[in-house]
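TICKET #2291
ISSUE: user wants both folds in one file
ATTACHMENT 1:
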Amino acid sequence: MDLFDLMAKEKLEKQAPLAERMKPETLESFFGQEKIIGEGRLLSKLIQSDRLSSILLYGPPGSGKTSLAKIIAKKTESEFISLNAVTSGVKDIRDTVQVAKDNLSLYGKRTILFIDEIHRFNKSQQDALLPFVEDGTVILIGATTENPYFEVNGALISRSSVFRLEKLGSEHILKILRHALEDVKNGLGMYEIEIDDKTLAYIAEMAAGDARRALNVLELAVLSQEDLLGKIQITPEVIEECLQMKYMDYDKNGDNHYDIVSAFIKSMRGSDPDAALYYLGKMIYGGENPRFIARRIVICASEDVGNADPMALVVANNAAQAVDFIGMPEGRILLAQAATYVASAPKSNASYVGIDEVLEDIANRETGKIPYYLKDGTSLKLERNYSGDEKSIRYAYPHAYEGHYVKQQYLPDEIKDRRYYRPSQNGHEKIIVDYLNRTKFSVE
């Protein structure tokens, strides 16, 4: 590279977007992935000992897959070559392999081949790459937003270690934003910027785990105010304009947060799907963690719907798992389905009330012993170690009787007449009431 090339490179780097300039260059400045690169973790050990083999980095956009690959190359003093699975073909792979061979034979230097969106590689591309991954000609670092166990060739998976990067938390993005504001060389430290913690937190929340998006918004906000004299003041209104989204005061640790969550739960409990959707939208718009929302729906499905519609818990639980698998923004559709199902379902808290009454009885009164014939190993124990009327008591197997039911005492003598579960007349519980009325007791 001659002098003019170096000058052009420096100019390009200075004009690069803030997100590009602020990419971490060391493990110490790589925030939010301590689970895989923290002290004593496997990937950290492999990097530090320079014994890294091919790996696949799986995680959402903006979680740092490309940055981590470059840090690894720098730390291990390897040549770094990047290909994109969408635009690169078999010829590009072969050319890269040749470069890697030359690096190794001429300079004794290994080559890290970084392939972005590796899940988009077709079979012929993966087959062309496989022998050189296997013999160590290149150290493959593949990046994907999709689960590699579903999307990547099994042969490549078996020759690679898979590491999952988590979506960055708001606290990690806040660190990145503050670092960008302070960094004079690569960041925005040369500007005199006024921005309060609440506005900064709003950017972090709106980024939804994507550090690149957060930095882009911050840079756009600064550039939009740059022509003003003196200090650059970044307000929620400025961020609102940059995001093309209305600013909403939604502090996840403040009273407003708990008020909205409370209104959401009470709307589902009160069978108002429109209100449930409205408060769900407020939480999504405010950057609430979708897992938190999903947990509230699952709890409501059991606490407030219960056996009046047992499918409510199935729908809510499936939505919670699917949201975790799919992520946002598509996850909003699943949350909306579950919330409206729970809100529209018939309601009963009989199970919830029942278990609390049981726990209160156990804590505050003598509830007696388990009937002898219900204990484990009854058939053997009935032959010995008992006396009196117990000899005439045998466990009655319900399936041996008509209707698969036989009247039999299951509660201890001291509480044999207690009724803990009192199903409502709503939904499926009407069927339960009819069944219980046909059998052992009347439901009040």
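ATTACHMENT 2:
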Amino acid sequence: MKTIAIIILLIFCVQLAEAQSCSSCRVSSYNYYKYGELDKAKEMTDFCITCDKSQKDPRVWYYRGLIYQGIHVSKEFKKLDPDAAMKAFEAFKKALLFNFLDPALQNLDIENKPEDLMAFYKALMDQKTKYTDQEITADIIMNQYPTLANIFVNKGIDAYQNTKEYDKSLKFFKSSLFVSGMSGKIDTPVIYYAGLAALKAKQYDEAIEMFKTCTKLNYGADNKEKANTYFFLADAYRQKGDTAKFTETLKKGIEKYPKDNNLLVVELINHYLQTKQVNEAKNYLQIAIQNDATNPTYHFALGTIYDSNDKNFEKAIECYKKAIELKADVFDYQYNLGAVYFNQAADIYNQANNEPDNNKYKALKAKGDEKMKLALPYLEEAHKLNNTDLPTLESLKNAYYRLQMMDKYDEVKKKIDALKK
């Protein structure tokens, strides 16, 4: 009996020593933290969480969160752990859950399951909920989480802008949103940044959710910025290969912001031009011109549709001239306008060649010459802007020949021969 009693006593002493050790490491970690000795506090909390008795002690995890958050913001101790902010995040989350006395609440997955998060909020609102220490929950939500949210925003921006680690940036922004949400704050700029990071990280479903939320919350400093959110949402759909949602989203943004939708209109125009949906492209080009009549690209693009698709050459000439009026030093603007006149002249010369009546032939030839004279200055200007373009030189050669400007004809012919060698 005496032997059994001694064994029981030894077991009790071991258990008591272990309990005291776990309790003392918890207290010691906090004391080191309180006096700014974060290196020793880190050692103690790292040891403390290895103890079975500490695994569900909310105070252990609360102190650990404080310590690691302190390490992150400390200049002296920051190098102790580059992942200190995330460890603080995990520690505070466990402290909140283990602070509930109800075992069912301790097992909630509040970060990944919306239904568990709702159960968590419901428990917080219920005055009958029992805690190990209610002040722990209040301090984390009211004081620690707002600080941690800002830390994650800064880390997310750094990962996005400086190291280009877009997956990591998204993770930080999402963590910031989570802790902000826990304290009842909806941080719409961070939702927007998370969407941008998700796009760069090619996590398109995440991007869609973020930008959809931004559009619902009407995020943006002004209507132009709000419209641009629709652009990014549409881009996420496009990257996923959902063309229907891509165009639908652009149209929604155009309709909602009729005076600030330029980026959306241009994107839709490019899509319609690339997919050969010419009439749709023309309609949205006209909207683009209404929004910004000083953009020569819009006039030129509309001119190419009238020129190539509609064969409405007068409208094409009008558009090309407007583009040149706005910006004269663009090769394509000059060449296309010259080409319209050149092709009209060529058609008239063909009619003349098929005309048996000499008087009518002369009248048609004279009419063709007038068109060719209109083409000439634009083709010459195009040549100045690109003096090695063979189609331009060939057109000039034919124009000079038709107008019997033989000196210039010979000059251009030599240039052509030299380029072809």
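RESOLUTION: both attachments delivered.
EXTRA DETAIL ON ATTACHMENT 2: Residues 66 and 147 are 11 Å apart (CA to CA).
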